[in-house]
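Sequence in, structure out. First:
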Amino acid sequence: MSLAPRAAYLFGIVMMLTLPLCAESQIRPTRRKPFEAMSASALRLKDSVTTRVARFVSRPVEVQDPAVLEMPEQLLRDSVVAIARRQIGRRYLLGGTTPSGGFDCSGLVRFVLAALRLGVPRTAAEQATSGLAVAADTGVLRPGDLVTFGKSRIHHVGIYTGEGRFIHASVKAGKVIESSITRQSSPLIQRWTGARMLLALRDTVQVPTR
């Protein structure tokens, strides 16, 4: 199957997955340029030395089907959030990677992105090197970005949903939940320390060669 039909097929599947969400929020799935909706401070961040260096030290996101790149970015982001929200209530399981068996934090992230034919590593620490580093600032983050937690080492990861909230497989709750990103730290709650952009820049992905 050529690229265009595959893109149309994938687009149709995602539309079926996300239609209720798009209808509820009245989001029009139109293509946006990278960083189009970002603040002035975010645009300065994009051009900073830190961001440019991050492109070389980061792990590319593997695109398992090039048709993904033909999807409107906003629809792709909405799809990530919609698929993640469908997992809310699934039980927490250390090492879990499936809805039926349960999820740990990185297993949930990997499952959601794999549903859209996007590949990331298995562990939270490895996922924290995927894509492009952005500031841990809700004014910069967009739905579908990853948020990471931990000081010297990343121990927890989740999917940002917007308005200061994220979806994650919580050890404390024992299930997948949606939480405030600024929740108070505790022995079982890691401090929010970073964020990764996976879906906006083409140089954050790796298209398979044939």
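Second:
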Amino acid sequence: MQFSPKEPRGGRRNWFFLGYLLLLLFAAVSCRKEEPSTVVQPPGQRSVNEMIQEAERLFAGREDLSKVRQAIFELKQARAIEPSSYDVAWRLAKFDYCLGVHSQDTSEQDKAFRDGIEAGRLAVKLQDNKPDGHFWLGANYGGRAEISVLAGIVSIEDIKTEMQRVLQIDEGYQSGSAYMVLGQVYLATPRLMGGNAQEAVDYLEKGLRFAADNTPLHVRLAEAYLAVNRKDDARKQLAVALSIKPNPDYIPEHKHAVEQAHQLEEKLK
């Protein structure tokens, strides 16, 4: 299954666009392979570590959305055994975000984002000094903004808060992806609500220090340059994006970003 955004409808256009652009943060980031905590399990029962590893294996095939659902099921089983596992909580937030973005079922979307926010909040509560929980909590706020105008209005500051926290903890987290998200928030948000294309450029340029393999960040910076009428700089960023050799773990995300780059090239002709 290929991931594809849905068309915006009516008054939801701005919030769809915010959610759609935040989808690209997913295009840049995948799981950080931390070592899960060790838990002693009864004989014959799979360990939490084994469940996490199986969830990761399933999520690697995320272009088939049924595998994302299976991965979430694995993590929920792990959570039932160890409710206070940070490694389970932040992954649930991430996988729920993926399901919410790509599902065609509006009820499933809403539930996935709500569950992702819940898991993200738990991850932050368990380990406030680690970036993963903050990042995926912010991502789920953005996902809800895509499907709910009211949630979008409320979520803008929440997204900014979580991404700023990521920057405080680990500025280079996932190849500068927090900078990318902040840039996209400022680019997608209506000006009357604090949107600012130049601020978007500023954030995205800061992320360049960490973005050697972050194809989507280069594409998003090209988009921001186009918004401030720096067309030559936009072309340069697209050329960089199209020249990047993708990380084998992130092939689906790289492919999506390349498609976006080609679409943007058409606008620059």
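Remark: The longest helix spans residues 106-126.
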